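anyone seen this seq b4? input:
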Amino acid sequence: MPVITNVDDLKRLHRRRTPKMFFDYCESGSWTEQTFRENTSDFAKLRFRQRVALDMSGRTLVSTMLGQPVAMPVALAPVGSLGMQSADGEIKAARAAAKFGVPFTLSTMSVCSIEDVATHVPDQAFWFQLYVQKDKSFTDSLIDRAKSAGCSALVVTLDLQIVGQRHKDLKNGVATPPKLTIRNVWDFATKWSWTFGMAGTKRRTFRNIVGHAPGVASLGDIHSWSAAQLEPRLDWDMVARVRDRWGGKFVLKGILDPEDARLAVKLGADAIVVSNHGGRQLDGALSTIRMLPSVVRAVKGQTEIWLDGGIRSGQDILKAVALGADATMIGRTYIHGLGAMGEAGVTRSLEILHKEMDTTMALCGRRNVREVNRDILLVPRDFEGEWAEKT
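predicted toks r here
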């Protein structure tokens, strides 16, 4: 086993151990992938101020998200087909998150169902992410199932009314489960630990959908159903209806524009997630870290602001907090751990992030993550540039 010291180590192991189509599904964006790349590269434009001769004992990264204590200001973001990265992947990730003390968010398009995950983690240990469907009764049933399973928050994704084109996914023929083509069978044969894991589980399709959605009784029905069910008419009135049906902690994900942030606050969101779907939707949109300051100004402390997209290290998390995020959501960072080493890999990714964040915070002269602000950064004058909202 190689020595794992950073997320890139997990990424390399993930690439070796997981079929190409699922690794590429994780490491790709839409069209030219400009936004996908800049989500990460724009973090590097922010530099830290090193401070010395300060008492750095008794440090803590403990924070809260939606009033819930967390070991650090991080939640695991919802990821579709997570159970294709590693057998029973959603369960493994949820268990690792619960043990570490951070929330896990289950995707509507998960391989393991809401009920599957609920039987493997403590009560209130995970959240549910909702895609609003054209079939309102099915959308309602998903909300009700999440309530019954004890999910403590509902995360509604707003930026997938229409699917952005992802060239790698189309060329790889991504499917859950994957089609048995000659190329795929050869790939699986070289990824024997993944193949044995999949052979040992019955969870190989979208279990929140099959057997629950009307007309979707088997795997053969799901592809045509899912293509027809995304709701292009989704508007704020529909979002309000979902909020009222849920009646609990309510998070809106996919906010990138300050005006949308204001509308989300007006709707009563308990948190908003500054996100561009990991660069997988509107290619050419600005990175989330560049848009964060203008959203923070627009909201002015009226709700929690979380940042999603581009985070590859604990230093990136600290930079997001310094620019005004109350917390962050991570996706690819923990997927690399899951694909590399299963549940242990998710735990290792969280350990790495925690260590990097703690060490960097200390070298910047802070002992408590709640004390971190823009003063720890050197921000280029043109970081927001012409795109910054004039306030």
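The longest helix spans residues 332-363. The CA atoms of residues 35 and 283 lie 5 Å apart. kinda curious what u guys think
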